[in-house]
Amino acid sequence: MSPQSSAPVQRTAPIAIAPKPPRPEPSAYRQDSFHRLEMGHGVASSAPVEGSSFNASSIPPCLSCRYSRVNCILNDDDDCCIQCQAAGSECSLSSSPQSRKRKLHGEASDDIIGKRSTAASSSFLEEMANVGGPTMLKRTLGLQDDRYSQYIGPTTDFEPSLINLSSFDPHDESLLSRGTLRKVSEHDTFLMLPDSSTPGHEHVTQDADHVESIVAPHGRRLIDIYFRVVHPGFPIIQKHVFMEKYERSYREFSPPLLAAVYILAINWWDQSEELAGLPRPNVRELESIVRTTLDEATFRPKLSTIQAGLLLSQRPEGDQWAPTAQLVALGHELGLHLDCTGWKIPPWEKGLRKRLAWALYMQDKWGALVHGRPSHIFATNWGVQPLTANDFPDVEWDENDPEEKLDIEKGRVLFTRVVQLSEILSEILDTFYTLQAMNTVANAGKQGTQLVLSLAKPIQLKLKEWYGGLPQLIRLDSSYSSLNPSSNRLSSIGYLHLAYFAAEITLHRRIIRSLASPSSSVDSYVQHICRSAAKARLISAMDFVNRLGPNHLRSFWYFASKTNFALIGTFGSLLWATSPGREEADWYRRRLGEYRWTLSVSSKPGEGKGLTEFAMTMLDISTGLLKQLPEKPSMSRNGSHADLSVSAPPIFSGGILDSLGSRPSAPEMSVMYSPRTDDEEEEEEIDSSDDDMEDYPPRM
Q: In terms of C-beta density within 10 A (0-12 exposed, 13-18 middle, 19 or more buried), how is residue 112 classed?
């Protein structure tokens, strides 16, 4: 469908709502009574499903289907009808002794796009949640086209006990003067409100036309790029759903989501053989539309609003803290912080909500790290359950492309493991970097370092367990193993490993700062062990960056990655600044010079300056400041921290070190702070060995 007009829509501040203009005539696929979904499974043909009728002499339909005036089809394997099971609601047939007499006479095709392989979790039940007329579409909560939802919290002007006195219909809805109550569980209720009462609703179609006109006629190719490059490493959209809807009309999407997909995909424009020689679409114009339409979408938030905001935050220039705070607030509005396991919504929507909730959690925690800000999400108000395989219903792949199946499997594992790492990062931030935590250490005086070490040990063990438990599928060396040896398949697993090193560095930075504190009373041997463990982390991180190949560097990187690259240099600068002697300081200076060279040759094609140039700039700033340090004294090998193990005191007192017994060895101490022990010989003035890198292949 060609766009109606490419002219931008002029707007003023959203004060009064203008009369809704007539919309363009819908195409043939719209000549039905179906309501569009903002995001969800595509609507199937309006033709009735073959064999869906049942004999009039059989038992009557359930109350829900009778109320909705739709055919009631009994599930072959259950005592309830398919419509109620798909909607997640209780079926009145479940108590009927005759319910199993009625069987499903036909099947609906779930092969819409082409020859695909599909798991049972996204089969007929998922489709039935979106087929059957307006009522079935309204069983979704955050995906409706004409209504948006607001979670009713326990302290609002709606009293929960009074809500329970309302008269709810078979679809758990109750019409009030302020809107429609939607009860999804015994304790969770939402208020459904019409989109038509919000600013900007009247020109959503024109905005979608404007977005499409900017990229036309390359929209479909950009969609393909997005799902080939971005989606495997950041699966917050259901691919088959998106593609089905796009095949019908781009107007089925909210404008900010459509624009966000295009904006990200354009970063890999030159990697497409069909597009490389053509002029790029005007990204600035797309961004201008997004700023306006996303702002208007916040007045009627839906799951697509969260999707658009998260995608836009992944841009090289999109890393900003204030929008993250707004996304978290919108997530609370949509109830994404709640456990939706028992809600009366379609099963596939539960999976989508959980993926978006955890993506929002990641955005908040990594944003808090890279910006040095307090997190907005707290464990006391977070009820989302861990992700499972059933939460990833997008399980279709092209049988002509066997590597696509591997990408999908790798993407699920990658996303799940990043979520787990984000939970550990949250613990690090809460334990060491809140105002209360920092004050507690400061008030401990001379025992502050011992307190930090005692708090660090269990978190370090969690990091070690997390890293050791990574499946081979997402280890760095596995990304070089391809079903097709000549394949240039991109892999986003680099951002997972980089995030791990950033978490390690964040933990060790706190330890090193504590050691350098004037009030620290830790003896020199403990300082040696802690600094050696920190050095091992630094070397591993630098060697990891040195071993990244083109298929990693050209892939999608999570928004925090550019700062995570910089944190490696910042950590090296901290170790340089706190070095006790000139020899050790010179060693860090040389390694930082090598790291800067690695960053300079690792510039990622496709996104220009975004990834490693920021890290180089920050490294230049740090090393420039280090030149202001007074010259450090020269230390002989016998007096340096590198050889303190031969003169270790027999007993340590206080804190974590007591648990090791008397006279612990250096390897025993190192394992407290590092996922690997360090058994190699010391290099020059200080030990630079680390066996983490045996998992990594040589640089390609």
A: middle
Classify burial at 334, counting beta carbons within 10 Å of its beta carbon; exposed 0-12, middle 13-18, buried 19 or more. buried
Q: Mean pLDDT over residues 240-269, rounded?
A: 92
Phi, psi of 117 (to 5 degrees): -110, 130
Rounded-to-integer distance, Cα 100 and Cα 74, Å? 7
Residue 533, CB half-sphere, CA atoms under 13 Å: how many? Answer: 29
Q: Which strand (E) or helix (H) includes residue 141?
A: none
Dist CA 450 CA 240 (whole Å):
54
Q: What interhelical angle do 347-371 and 303-312 show, nearest 10?
A: 30
Contact 203, 462 (CB under 8 A): no
pLDDT digits (tens, 9 = 90+) for 123-178: 334 444 443 333 334 578 988 889 999 999 999 999 988 998 999 999 899 999 99
Helix ranges (DSSP H) in 517-553 = 524-546, 550-553
Reference 93, options 59, 55, 124, 125; nearest CA is 59
Look up residue 205 and give its amino acid: T
**Is-cis flag, bond preceding 217, omega within 30?**
yes
Q: How many CB atoms lie within 10 A of CB 27?
A: 11
Tokens linked to 213: 């006109």
Q: Give the DSSP letter of residue 48.
A: P
pLDDT surpasses 60 at 48: no
Q: Which amino acid is at 467?
A: Y
